[in-house]
Amino acid sequence: MSETGAVKKQDTPFEGGPMDGRVLAVLVGPTGNPPKTYRIPVPDAHGGPPTVLVYRREPRGHSKRLGLVQGWKYTYDPEGKRAGGLRLPWSKRDTDPDATPSGKPDDADG
């Protein structure tokens, strides 16, 4: 088996939730950024299913001149829902069926 080289890690702080104030070495991807979500399974003391703590990646700060991201931090997401994703104009997600379609006036005459 061939050697793949050194694995790159980035020390990333965690804010909120049970991991508040801790800094973990998180693996970075090919772009040099840590993953958008970080899930931490916590085993149950009574042998039940593990609780999963969900943290979302946010910029730690921006540079003054160009506004580039200076680093990343993870903030606690207590609901743990899947956020974001690719939103296409034709997708039906998060639409109100009673609402008037965008771009068409509300025609009361029929």
Could you give the topology of this structure?
Elements: E1 9-15, E2 23-27, E3 37-42, E4 51-62, E5 69-76
How many individual helices? Answer: 0
- Arithmetic mean of pLDDT: 80
Largest sheet: 5 strands, mixed
How many strands in all? 5
Helix and strand content put the structural class at: mainly beta
Radius of gyration: 21 Å
Q: How much of the sequence is in beta strands?
A: 25-35%
Distance between the termini: 70 Å
Using the alpha-carbon principal axes, give the shape: globular
Element-level helix/strand string: EEEEE
Side by side, the strands of the main sheet go 2-1-5-4-3
> Poorly predicted ranges (pLDDT <50, ≥5 residues)?
none
Which range best describes the helical content: under 10%, 10-25%, 25-40%, 40-55%, 55-70% or over 70%? under 10%
Biased composition (Basic and acidic residues): 1-12
Region (Disordered): 1-20, 78-110
